[in-house]
């Protein structure tokens, strides 16, 4: 899951090209890798890819700060 | 600038297209110039810099893009090469200010769209300081783009300096985005995103009006105000942004949420619109590549909110977060549409672009405002921190037409004050913080005059007049006159008697009397005895009199002989005394001068109470004297004042006439009311013409607006009681020849008669309603919001009053008194009366009245609590529920605000018009889509000739009858038919009003053309005119139908197969060719012809005066329509006006009649136009002529000239009189009326209910209509939805059948169609099509729409056969079931 997200981010969303690659622990938001429109695009991608809906109240830093946060969130969501 | 050949053309992106149109609409204005100055604080090499800029141009296709038009569509292309010599300007000897001015000036330079759209200069301020000026047209750039270009420039400069240009990373091309967007748009047309926006935009209110301002036309001129947040606010913002419950994904997003919330709250406060819509630019650079591409990417999408004053900032912030999430999700490239762009007039531009240092040199940037903006954006708010200083700057671009100089200085302060108030405590409601500046507060609190005079009671003032003019007449009625001395003596006598009866200072004495000298004497006597008088009008039901006596604890009831005889007064437990001035006991008279104090109560007036019972208002002598003292000065005339007493003694406005003449040495003429029936005293006042001043209500004024008042002696009119319409005052003023002063007085009973007043001024009072003006002496007015903040000028708030004139409270209602008379927060120890009226201060510092906060209404100047009527009505045993409403005619657009379609001339007050940005009406725009189909309906003259020839020989004498009015159109028809070699019989209806010259024209035409001619006529013509005026608001409809009827009869008699009409093409569209006929893509002309024939048959069955007065039996027979066919000449002939006139002049010698004063040959025609204009606001020719223009048969100018021709009102009134037409409002006689809507069972007729109420309420509180509803519509909160009830048309109210809401899909579909076609807001399933004004054209439209919706063909006549939705729906259901079975 991490891989899919990282590929999508790197190929389609980056604000600026990264000097070294993107790790699942990189802060996507704080470091300016993604802006809010980019994050929304990522969510739309996730929704389509995994056939789920991310409600607005779930759109918080705690769920989306890094790629691994996102995978955690998705896993939890699947279980619940 | 050297350019080279262009590459291929590309279409414009959606955002580009909207800017391109905007620039085209304002070609002289630099409204889309985006200029930046980059101040580089260090040494640079100008030569390298110039080179770098050339390299930038070479690499950036956006900078080489030019625009042109291919056919009518704009296209863009990229110049392959562009050599640009960057100007380097040495400004080292200039001052900072002049450099600034130079840049501002330069930034306004207009771009030629067919040339490269940028301008750049390098300014050398000093060897160590340069300014790079870069101005780019928005069509090829946006904020991010500027930042990209700046960074690229910095990098190119470095590479050139280091000679490493090859290592420069290439700049992506904008054309990638153009292709991307085109693809996205195509694939998303029907997507979820598109439907999201469609749904989001539904049910929007109009764009918000800032500070009550809505200029008819907004210019592009715009001013920018810069607002730095400053340290303290930034500290608060940063602290808030760090809170976990507030923090969003990024700091920028958090700040965006906070600023959006703030702006929404501000907009809500200053536009009073509960729906706030803000346009937010989406940067739209959705991929990594786009993030590095210069060019125009941004697209505007709205964020929409609904809010209330009680919503807290925190609650609103949560909504903003949600809406932002939706926004981010749906603001997608290519999804922008014109309707999305039209849905807001405010922009919030949160810019996170930053311009860092220039190649290591510190840089400070500024965005230069070009002085213009898109005029649709009244406020643009940019939030930014370009240079990353940590201090956010807001740039507010104010449209100058909306925000004047003063407002531009106040508005930013309002925003900041609100921000400070809200950021301190997130739980604060957005309505709570005060916004106004100290300066505004001082002005608002100071705007009243304080003028104290020593207190002298009305009794003393009257006594002074007795002393100085004892033998002058003081008051009289039809029978008798009394001098000042007589009144004094008689009131002394009565006062003496009162003393004997135990009346002492402070006693309450009720006066249940007619308007009469006795009433005046009684009232003065009560005051002389030191008592308080309570006037009770003679039409008060005895139950209510008892209620008032009991509530007021009156000691005595003074009444008249008549009332004692007619009413069981003895049943009331009170001492009563009949006052008869002519049989007063002469002995025992003492001159009574009581010692009255300012705080003593002079009178108690009972007004309608929302609890269901009337409430008494206590007015002190000080309050009464204050009003009268002021009025004495303000209303003084050269001569002594003569006023009539003709309004009810129970109303506070009557106090003016009651006292003013008697304390100024004037005369009071008393008009007693009739014992029963409506009070028409006012008309007697006008006919008698005895008075020079009059106090009256606007309702009275409507009664005389059509009278000739040339000889009237009235010099002063004081209007009070309800809002005064400018149109009404104007029309009345015109009827007077003498100069006359008109005052508009405002004042609730609780603030004594009048406390705010405006003198009407023709030149300055141009709005629909005359302002109420400024407070009188010693009174203050405050416009406050729900949190008792003073509201800024222009905004609506509740009107509060303070000052000497305030009442002492309500009788026996301590809680209500506390609730309505609150502590004045602005003056210590003072009271503030909450009027419940809405008002605002306008630009001239006058107060404007804007209606009620609650359910109280005014009818004929009298206030009525609807709840009181409802609670009395609900006591009727058969009633389940009810709601009472005051219905008013809708306000019309003032004539000066009417604009005309820029293409066809249709006026904007034509029902349901919608004009686009270029001022083109919806009819013109819609016609574009079916013009081709519609044109197929028209044929050639050859076709007409062969059709007419085909039946040749059937009648040896005539081939056809030609309808000849003598006007140009019908004369042309006749001449052309003769030209074709046809044998023609000309027919003219002599309706009694054909002008002499027109008759002469007819005579010479038929002689010249050598044709036979017959005049038809009927002695019922006037009846037909009157019916037509009532039914259609014009005379033409009745006249046409008479012509059709009489000519058909003639044709049958003479066996002529054809009748040729001279209807214009415009008239076809007015009477038969509706848009709906062309809904069907493959419509056959034969089908349309058949539909029109069906409609004609129905037309002759309509039950109007023609059907009642003339012989129409032939229309019952089917074969009539086969034996006589109607052909419209202009269906076959396409002739322009000038061509026609030339032909007529040469061949026939036709001249335009001059004796009708208009472009017509018929004298009564203008009566129709007058009535139509008066009742509907626009000419009956406006619509057909707009079609003539659309069809190319008239020009817009010709049309405007004709529909705006002046009308001779005198002549119109003479003719109205002659034909027996009573001019009236569409709403019956009264433009306002009370209507009760009820549910229940077992009520036979509305008279039951009316009689029931008459025993409980005075006349003016009895509804004039009672409408039976199957159920009352409810709001989401479960209350009766009064707004929905207001949607019922007066014709629906008159129907005996109950109102039943549509139910089920078919009924709802039908109701929707009928509503639109009949121009109604709400339709019941039992409402009758014919009674609602349905006619054959409406039937065509309904049937065609049903066909379009259901793909089923229904016969036209079904609408008439099954004239209710309920019946028609059943028929449709049956038809569908039958079809399914098959």
Write structural notes for this entry.
The complex is a heterodimer of chains A (80) and B (1382). With 80 residues, chain A is an all-alpha fold. Chain A is built from 4 helices and no strands. Chain A has one domain (2-79): Non-ribosomal Peptide Synthetase Peptidyl Carrier Protein, Chain A. In chain A, helix 1 crosses helix 2 (36-50). In chain B, strands 7-8-9-3-14 form a 5-stranded mixed beta sheet. A 5-stranded mixed beta sheet of chain B has the order 27-28-29-30-31, covered by helices on one side. Chain B is globular and about 125 Å long. The termini of chain B are far apart. In chain B, 45% of the residues are buried. Classes of the chains: A mainly alpha (80), B alpha/beta (1382). The interface between A and B is medium-sized, with 24 and 24 residues.
Secondary-structure map:
The complex is a heterodimer of chains A (80) and B (1382).
Chain A: H1 2-13, H2 36-50, H3 61-64, H4 67-79
Chain B: E1 2-3, E2 10-11, H1 14-25, E3 33-40, H2 46-59, E4 65-70, E5 73-78, E6 82-83, E7 87-90, H3 96-107, E8 118-126, E9 129-137, H4 143-162, H5 175-188, H6 192-201, E10 222-228, H7 230-242, H8 251-271, E11 275-282, E12 299-306, H9 313-330, H10 338-341, E13 346-351, E14 363-368, E15 379-384, E16 393-399, H11 405-423, H12 438-446, H13 458-468, E17 473-476, E18 481-483, H14 484-500, E19 508-513, H15 517-528, E20 532-537, H16 542-552, E21 556-559, H17 561-566, E22 576-578, E23 601-607, E24 615-620, H18 621-634, E25 642-645, H19 655-664, E26 667-670, H20 681-688, E27 693-696, H21 698-704, E28 716-720, H22 726-735, E29 741-746, E30 756-759, E31 774-775, E32 779-784, E33 797-803, E34 809-810, H23 814-820, E35 821-823, E36 831-841, E37 847-852, E38 856-859, E39 862-865, H24 866-873, E40 879-888, H25 922-935, H26 941-950, E41 960-963, H27 968-979, E42 984-989, H28 996-1009, E43 1012-1016, H29 1021-1032, H30 1036-1054, E44 1058-1061, H31 1065-1071, H32 1085-1099, H33 1105-1109, H34 1120-1123, E45 1125-1128, H35 1129-1132, ...
Parallel strand pairs in B: 7-8, 13-15, 17-26, 19-20, 19-21, 21-22, 25-26, 27-28, 28-29, 41-42, 41-44, 42-43, 44-45, 46-47
Antiparallel strand pairs in B: 1-6, 2-5, 3-9, 3-14, 4-5, 8-9, 10-16, 11-12, 15-16, 17-18, 23-24, 24-34, 29-30, 30-31, 32-33, 33-36, 35-36, 36-37, 38-39, 40-46
Helix pairs in contact in B: 2-4, 8-9, 8-11, 13-19, 14-15, 27-36, 29-30, 31-38, 32-45, 38-39, 44-45, 44-47
């Amino acid at each position: 899951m991490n891989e899919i997200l990282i590929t999508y981010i790197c190929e389609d969303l980056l604000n600026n090209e990264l000097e070294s690659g993107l790790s699942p622990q990189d802060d996507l938001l704080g470091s300016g890798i993604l802006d809010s429109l980019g994050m929304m695009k990522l969510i739309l991608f996730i929704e389509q890819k995994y056939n789920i809906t991310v409600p607005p109240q779930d759109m918080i830093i705690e769920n989306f700060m890094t790629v691994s946060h996102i995978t955690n969130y998705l896993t939890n969501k699947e279980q619940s | 600038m050297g350019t080279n050949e262009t590459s291929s053309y590309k279409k414009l992106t959606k955002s580009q297209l909207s800017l391109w149109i905007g620039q085209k609409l304002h070609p002289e204005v630099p409204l889309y110039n985006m200029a930046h100055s980059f101040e580089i604080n260090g040494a640079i090499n100008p030569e390298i810099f110039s080179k770098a800029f050339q390299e930038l141009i070479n690499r950036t296709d956006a900078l080489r893009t030019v625009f042109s038009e291919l056919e009518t569509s704009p296209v863009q292309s990229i110049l392959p090469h562009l050599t640009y010599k960057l100007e380097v300007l040495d400004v080292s000897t200039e001052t900072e200010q002049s450099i600034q001015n130079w840049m501002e000036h330069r930034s306004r330079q207009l771009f030629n769209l067919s040339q490269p759209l940028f301008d750049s200069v390098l300014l050398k301020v000093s060897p160590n300081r340069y300014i790079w000026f870069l101005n780019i047209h928005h069509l090829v750039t946006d904020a991010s783009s500027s930042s990209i270009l700046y960074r690229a420039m910095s990098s190119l400069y470095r590479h050139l300096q280091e000679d490493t240009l090859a290592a420069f990373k290439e700049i992506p091309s904008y054309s990638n985005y153009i292709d991307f967007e085109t693809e996205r748009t195509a694939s998303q047309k029907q997507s979820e995103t598109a439907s999201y926006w469609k749904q989001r935009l539904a049910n929007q209110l109009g764009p918000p009006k800032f500070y009550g301002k809505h200029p008819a036309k907004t210019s592009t001129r715009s001013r920018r105000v810069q607002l730095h947040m400053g340290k303290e606010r930034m500290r608060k913002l940063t602290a808030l942004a760090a809170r976990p419950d507030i923090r969003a994904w990024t700091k920028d997003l958090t700040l965006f949420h906070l600023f959006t919330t703030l702006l929404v709250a501000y907009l809500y406060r200053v536009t009073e619109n509960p729906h706030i819509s803000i346009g937010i630019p989406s940067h739209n650079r959705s991929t990594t590549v786009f993030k590095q591409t210069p060019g125009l990417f941004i697209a505007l999408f709205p964020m929409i909110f609904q809010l209330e004053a009680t919503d807290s900032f925190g609650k609103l912030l949560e909504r903003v977060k949600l809406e932002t999430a939706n926004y981010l999700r749906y603001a997608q490239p290519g999804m922008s549409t014109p309707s999305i762009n039209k849905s807001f007039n405010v922009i919030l531009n949160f810019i996170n672009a930053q311009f860092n240092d220039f190649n290591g040199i510190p840089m400070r940037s500024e965005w230069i405002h070009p002085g213009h903006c898109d005029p649709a954006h009244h406020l643009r708010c940019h939030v930014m921190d370009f240079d990353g200083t940590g201090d956010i700057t807001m740039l507010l671009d104010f449209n100058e037409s909306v925000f004047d100089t003063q407002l531009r200085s106040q508005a930013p302060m309002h925003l900041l004050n609100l921000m400070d108030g809200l950021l301190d405590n997130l739980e604060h409601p957005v309505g709570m913080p005060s916004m106004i500046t100290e300066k505004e507060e001082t002005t608002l609190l100071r705007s009243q005059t304080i003028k104290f005079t020593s207190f002298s009671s009305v009794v003393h003032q009257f006594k002074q007049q007795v002393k100085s003019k004892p033998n002058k007449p003081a008051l009289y009625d039809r029978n008798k006159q009394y001098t000042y001395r007589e009144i004094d003596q008689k009131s002394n006598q009565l006062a003496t008697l009162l003393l004997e009866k135990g009346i002492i200072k402070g006693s309450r004495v009720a006066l249940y009397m007619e308007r009469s000298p006795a009433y005046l004497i009684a009232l003065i006597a009560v005051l002389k005895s030191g008592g308080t008088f309570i006037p009770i009008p003679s039409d008060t039901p005895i139950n209510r009199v008892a209620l008032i006596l009991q509530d007021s604890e009156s000691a005595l009831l003074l009444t008249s002989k008549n009332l004692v005889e007619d009413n069981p007064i003895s049943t009331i437990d009170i001492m009563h005394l009949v006052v008869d001035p002519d049989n007063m006991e002469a002995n025992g008279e003492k001159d009574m001068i009581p010692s009255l104090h300012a705080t003593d109560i002079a009178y108690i007036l009972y007004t309608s109470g929302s609890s269901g019972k009337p409430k008494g208002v206590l007015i002190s002598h000080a309050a009464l004297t204050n009003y009268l003292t002021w009025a004495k000065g303000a209303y003084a005339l050269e001569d002594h004042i003569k006023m009539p007493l003709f309004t009810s003694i129970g109303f506070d406005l009557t106090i003016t006439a009651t006292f003013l003449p008697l304390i100024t040495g004037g005369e009071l003429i008393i008009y007693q009311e009739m014992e029963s029936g409506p009070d028409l005293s006012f008309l007697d006042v006008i006919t008698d013409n005895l008075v020079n001043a009059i106090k009256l209500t606007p309702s009275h004024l409507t009664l005389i607006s059509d009278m000739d008042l040339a000889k009237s002696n009235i010099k002063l009119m004081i209007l009070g009681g309800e809002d005064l319409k400018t149109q009404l005052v104007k029309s009345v003023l015109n009827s007077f020849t003498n100069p006359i002063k008109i005052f508009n007085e405002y004042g609730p009973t609780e603030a004594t008669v009048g406390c705010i007043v405006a003198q009407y001024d023709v030149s300055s009072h141009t709005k629909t309603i005359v302002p109420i003006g400024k407070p009188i002496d010693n009174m203050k007015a405050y416009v406050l919001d729900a949190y008792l903040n003073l509201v800024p000028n222009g905004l609506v708030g509740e009107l509060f009053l303070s000052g000497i004139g305030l009442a002492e409270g309500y009788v026996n209602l301590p809680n209500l008194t506390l609730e309505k008379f609150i502590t004045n927060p602005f003056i210590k120890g003072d009271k503030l009366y909450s009027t419940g009226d809405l008002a605002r201060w306008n630009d001239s510092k006058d107060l404007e009245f804007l209606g009620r906060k609650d359910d109280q209404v005014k009818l004929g100047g009298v206030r009525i609590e609807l709840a009181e009527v409802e609670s009395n009505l609900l006591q009727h045993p058969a009633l389940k529920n009810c709601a009472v409403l005051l219905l008013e005619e809708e306000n019309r657009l003032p004539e000066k605000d009417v604009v005309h379609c820029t293409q066809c001339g249709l006026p904007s007050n034509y029902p349901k018009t919608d004009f686009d940005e270029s001022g083109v009406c919806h009819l013109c725009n819609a016609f574009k889509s079916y013009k081709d189909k519609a044109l197929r309906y028209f044929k050639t003259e050859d076709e007409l000739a062969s059709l007419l020839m085909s039946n040749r020989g059937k009648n040896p004498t005539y081939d056809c009858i030609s309808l000849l009015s003598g006007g140009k159109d019908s004369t042309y028809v006749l001449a052309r038919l003769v030209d074709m070699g046809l044998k023609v019989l000309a027919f003219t209806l002599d309706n009694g009003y054909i002008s002499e010259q027109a008759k002469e024209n007819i005579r010479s035409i038929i002689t010249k053309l050598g044709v036979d001619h017959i005049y038809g006529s009927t002695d019922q013509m006037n009846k037909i005119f009157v019916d037509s005026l009532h039914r259609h608001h014009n005379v033409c409809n009745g006249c046409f139908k008479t012509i059709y009827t009489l000519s058909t009869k003639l044709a049958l008699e003479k066996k002529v197969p054809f009748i040729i009409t001279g209807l214009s093409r415009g008239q076809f569209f007015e009477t038969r060719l509706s848009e709906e006929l062309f809904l069907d893509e493959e419509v056959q002309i034969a089908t349309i012809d058949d539909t029109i024939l069906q409609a004609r048959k129905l037309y002759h069955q309509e039950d109007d005066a023609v059907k009642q007065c003339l012989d129409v039996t032939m229309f019952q027979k089917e074969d009539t329509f086969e034996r006589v066919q109607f052909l419209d000449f202009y269906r076959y002939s396409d002739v322009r006006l000038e061509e026609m006139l030339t032909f007529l002049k040469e061949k026939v010698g036709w001249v335009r009649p001059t004796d009708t004063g208009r472009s017509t040959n018929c004298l009564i025609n203008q009566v129709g136009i007058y009535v139509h204009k008066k009742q509907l606001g626009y000419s009956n020719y406006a619509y057909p002529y707009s079609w003539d223009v659309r069809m190319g048969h008239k020009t817009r100018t010709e049309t405007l000239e004709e529909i705006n021709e002046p009308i001779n009102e005198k002549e119109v009134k003479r003719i109205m009189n002659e034909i027996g037409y009573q001019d009236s409002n569409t709403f019956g006689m009264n433009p306002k009326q009370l209507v009760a809507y009820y549910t229940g069972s077992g009520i036979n007729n509305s008279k039951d209910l009316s009689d029931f109420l008459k025993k409980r309420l005075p006349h003016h509180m009895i509804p004039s209509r009672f409408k039976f509803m199957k159920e009352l519509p409810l709001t989401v909160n479960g209350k009766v939805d009064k707004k929905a009830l207001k949607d019922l048309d007066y014709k629906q109210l008159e129907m005996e059948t109950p109102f039943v809401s549509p139910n089920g899909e078919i009924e709802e579909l039908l109701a929707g169609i009928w509503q639109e076609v009949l121009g109604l807001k709400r339709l019941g399933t039992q409402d009758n099509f014919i009674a609602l004004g349905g006619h054959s054209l409406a039937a065509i439209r309904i049937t065609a729409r049903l066909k379009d919706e259901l793909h089923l063909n229904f016969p036209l006549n079904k609408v008439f056969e099954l004239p209710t939705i309920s019946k028609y729906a059943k028929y449709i259901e049956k038809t569908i079931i039958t079809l399914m079975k098959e």
